[in-house]
């Protein structure tokens, strides 16, 4: 009986130990589950915070500006410069503008003062006025240049070109360009648009007018050539007349000299012989000539001697 009693006590102690072990294991499992759930919650909270912070920030790149639209108050009057800025997610959204000067070519077909059609291409360098970006967004939107520039360029071109003839558009191009620039700058400023440069890049007339101008230039060149030929003929005629008058005057003077002095012919004969002798002496060839060839025939009587003989 004592042995049975000891066995019963031993079995009861073993059951108590198993029960306590089970209780301890259950407590540890519950604690581990609560730790995993806590870590997951922390990660979710951090993720939600990161998403919220990211949604609350926006960047404005270099050469850009931004205005803010609020679902409650509409477009705000502030202009946001380059950098990172805060906003209220869902309630506010930024509108970013490129404020750098942008080139744009605009072509327009218009008429001149003498009713010639001309196609003019204008290069415009434009940018928005930064301090007026909220008003630009309210009145014109993002594509403000698309809405404004084509219409005012066509209007100004038609107004200015109509003041000049077709030929004046070429000869007075600088003046035409200056008038277009002044009027365009004034018209664009009323829309809060700044024009840094306005220049005429191309002027094209109708084929008929171009052919007419070419024909006129050819006719002018031919007329100038004919005038030159006429002037040349007149000058040649005048030269012949002057030469003939000079020869006649020379002959008259020689005749007068002969009448006054019979030895004039002898003097001229001697001068001519001297010139011939000089030319022959300068030649490399040896030439033998008699006195008659040199006009120095001493055997002939001179006019003065003939007069004395008579």
TrEMBL record:
Annotated GO biological process: mitochondrion organization; mitophagy
PANTHER family tied to this protein: PROHIBITIN, PROHIBITIN-2
Gene3D superfamilies: Band 7 domain
Predominant location: mitochondrion
Superkingdom field: Eukaryota
Alphabetically ordered keywords of this record: Membrane, Mitochondrion, Mitochondrion inner membrane
Segment forming the signal sequence: none
Region named Disordered: 1-30
Transmembrane parts of this sequence: none
Biased composition (Polar residues): 1-11
InterPro entries per UniProt: Band_7 (IPR001107), Band_7/SPFH_dom_sf (IPR036013), Prohibitin (IPR000163)
Family of this protein: Belongs to the prohibitin family.
One Pfam entry name: Band_7
UniProt domain Band: residue ranges: 56-217
Subcellular location: Mitochondrion inner membrane
Name listed for the protein in its UniProt record: Prohibitin
GO cellular component: mitochondrial inner membrane
């Amino acid at each position: 009986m004592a042995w049975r009693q000891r066995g019963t006590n031993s079995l009861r102690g073993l059951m108590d130990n198993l029960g306590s072990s089970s209780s301890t294991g259950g407590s540890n499992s519950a604690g581990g589950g609560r730790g995993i759930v806590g870590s997951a919650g922390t990660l979710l909270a951090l993720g939600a915070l990161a998403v919220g912070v990211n949604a609350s920030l926006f960047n404005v790149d270099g050469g850009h500006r931004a205005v803010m639209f609020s679902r409650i108050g509409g477009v705000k009057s502030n202009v946001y410069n380059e950098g990172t800025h805060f906003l209220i997610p869902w309630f506010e959204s930024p509108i970013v503008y490129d404020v750098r000067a942008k080139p744009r070519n605009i072509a327009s077909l218009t008429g001149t003062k003498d009713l010639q059609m001309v196609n003019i291409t204008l290069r415009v360098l434009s940018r928005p006025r930064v301090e007026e970006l909220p008003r630009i967004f309210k009145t014109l939107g993002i594509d403000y240049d698309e809405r404004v520039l084509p219409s005012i360029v066509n209007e100004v071109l038609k107004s200015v070109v109509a003041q000049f003839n077709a030929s004046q558009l070429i000869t007075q191009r600088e003046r035409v360009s200056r008038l277009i620039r002044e009027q365009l700058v004034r018209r664009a400023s009323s829309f809060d648009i700044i024009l840094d440069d306005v220049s005429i890049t191309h002027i094209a007339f109708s084929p008929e007018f171009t052919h007419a101008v070419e024909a006129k230039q050819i006719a002018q060149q031919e007329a100038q050539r004919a005038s030159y030929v006429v002037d040349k003929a007149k000058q040649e005629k005048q030269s012949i007349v002057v030469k003939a008058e000079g020869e006649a005057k020379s002959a008259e003077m020689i005749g007068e000299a002969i009448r006054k002095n019979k030895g004039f012919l002898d003097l001229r004969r001697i001068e001519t012989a001297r010139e011939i002798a000089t030319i022959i002496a300068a030649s490399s060839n040896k030439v033998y000539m008699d006195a008659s060839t040199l006009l120095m025939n001493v055997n002939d009587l001179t006019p003065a001697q003939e007069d004395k003989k008579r």
